[in-house]
Specification:
alpha+beta; Chemotaxis protein chec; two-stranded antiparallel ribbon; 5 helices
Length: 224
């Protein structure tokens, strides 16, 4: 039987690029600020939550993985303030420090929308399905390293550097099983409506502002 030489169309680095594009897309829509990420990716040995705000989410299904975003206080506050001002809030009503529950709620919900946009693209572009956990957020005032492990057979761990419009830095880390998606048949990819995504961000953010992030729940999840 003749073997077909189908091209490999998507590997871990391509999946990471798609996730990075979701970060830029969602945060730009939410804050109207410009964001960029490095053209270089780092291979690292493990993912960690780091000061000042660490947020993580697990995904499973067609492939398994873990996504962590570590924000500096400056980058978190810039994104939080730009989003809230874009929503019509006055500067006097904004939280003054990154440790405020309101900041954690906003950053956690933005993370939720980022991964939601990413999982939607995975469904459309890779013709598979993944589910995501609810993002967990932790604000840290000291240099305490929290390692978050997930069960991966052949893990690849990658880190990308992002920069905000004001030049503040934050990092995205992704741990994912070694995987390759090979295109067997042609199919059309449906474009996501940016206005619909922005409306979804606003609706979910309104709901999130009524909840406060629970540090105890996160500690229990991490078995600390």
């Amino acid at each position: 039987m003749e073997k077909n030489n189908y091209p490999v169309v998507c590997g871990a680095e391509d999946i990471l690029r798609s996730l990075c594009d979701s970060v830029v897309k969602v945060l730009h829509l939410a804050t109207t600020g410009k964001l960029s990420y490095s053209g270089m990716v780092q291979r690292i040995t493990r993912t960690c939550l780091k000061p000042d705000i660490g947020c993580f989410v697990l995904f499973d299904g067609g492939f398994s993985g873990l996504v962590v975003i570590n924000f500096s206080a400056a980058s978190a506050m810039e994104l939080y303030e730009r989003y809230m001002l874009n929503m019509g809030m006055s500067k006097e009503d904004l939280a003054a420090t990154f440790t405020a529950d309101e900041v954690s709620n906003v950053m956690g919900e933005l993370m939720n929308q980022i991964v939601g946009d990413f999982t939607c693209k995975v469904s459309q572009e890779l013709q598979t399905h993944i589910t995501q956990s609810q993002p967990k957020m932790l604000a840290l005032t000291k240099h305490v390293m929290l390692s978050v492990d997930t069960h991966l057979d052949q893990p690849q761990v990658l880190r990308v550097t992002f920069q905000t419009e004001r030049g503040n830095i934050f990092y995205l880390e992704m741990a994912i099983d070694h995987t390759e998606f090979i295109k067997l048949n042609d199919f059309e990819v449906e474009e996501v409506n940016p206005d619909a995504l922005l409306d979804q961000i606003r609706d979910s953010m309104d709901a999130a502002m009524g909840d406060s992030a629970s540090r105890d729940d996160l500690m229990a999840l991490l078995d600390m």
